[in-house]
Amino acid sequence: MLLAHKIELRPTPEQAIYLDKACGSKRHCYNQLLAHFSKPENKWSKTAAYQYYIKVIRQEFQWYSEVSSRVTRNAIDDLDNAFSHFFRRIKLKQKAGFPRFKKKDINDSFALRESAKFDVIGRELRLEKLKTRIEMRQSLRFQGVTKQVTISKRAGKYFASILVETEDYNPNDNDRQASVGVDFGIKELAVLSTGTVFAANQKLKANLKKLAKLQRNLAKKIKGSNHRAKAKLTVAKLHFRIAKQRQALLHELSDYLTKTFSVITIEDLNVKGMVKNRKLSRAISDAGFGYLRQMIKYKAHLRNCIIVIANRFFPSSKTCSCCGKIKENLTLADRVFNCECGFSADRDLNAALNLNKYGQDTLQPDLKCASEQSQTVDLFTASVLTV
Hints:
Blueprint: E1 2-10, H1 13-37, H2 46-60, H3 69-91, E2 108-112, E3 118-121, E4 124-127, E5 134-136, E6 144-154, E7 157-166, E8 177-184, E9 188-192, E10 197-199, H4 203-206, H5 208-219, H6 226-260, E11 261-267, H7 271-274, H8 281-287, H9 289-302, E12 306-310, E13 336-338, E14 344-346, H10 347-368, H11 370-376, H12 379-383, E15 384-386
Parallel strand pairs: 8-11, 11-12, 12-15
Antiparallel strand pairs: 1-5, 1-7, 2-6, 3-4, 4-5, 6-7, 8-9, 9-10, 13-14
Helix pairs in contact: 1-2, 1-3, 2-3, 5-6, 6-9
């Protein structure tokens, strides 16, 4: 099994200079290749790119040799991946999206995809052509063979994403509960059918005034000046902190669900359509529903959970979880669900109960023919059911 662990680095000033040089070299090589193959007379191919890289680019820019040769060489693979997606979208008659030039300080990164070019010992990382080892904030979580490392820079901080081939991941699913329904929302991030509530943690909303102040300060600075660079970094650091705080909450929720329950039923939210509501778009984006669903899926795959994704038009909020009657006149202002049968509950809890029942009903026929499905469907596909 291949698993990646992203760890913050703590480089010395000299090591930070090397990392910046590596990021700059990879970005420069990528842009040189893209500029060459953007011309009509030059047809893209990986072989042609490699020949141009060896015969022209490496000869013209001798300073590439200050970092590992694989840093710039791997730019060919990155550009090949970009062109592959470009041609795929053309074939599918989608918006093509020609590869774009990379800009400084925007998603800076480089990769070493050969095990011999780096190694990890304890909390130290060695990179080729760097004389000293870089201190890492923590040790690797997984034991195994390191396959590749990707160094990235975000808001002035450096991170190493290390890919490890390991066999020591053994999820403990003996004490898990059977099933749960999860209702996502803005007021509360998630309400479970068990009654557990995960409160919303809208850090972007909490930092809007501070963010506006920093952006006004940035707008006053002269372009190209050091003061503008410092102000820009301050804004980036605040955005980065907000993103990490949001990510921490989503990790907490997804980790709890996949550790505690064997079957998880969630909604198929139309996030792209939801953000068109101008009054709620910021709150919906701040909640991170799409990212949360992605986390739940991959963690469920690792822990052998079953994910049931309810039909987008399933009326989970309008259906009574006691008698099953649908209340058509229910509005967003009605926070308590009251039914004619006498049942009364919080609107979100009622929706979670309905989702849990939906998941149980959906899996009933599949359990009878599980042996037949296992012969034709792989593990990941079988663990995520969209109904």
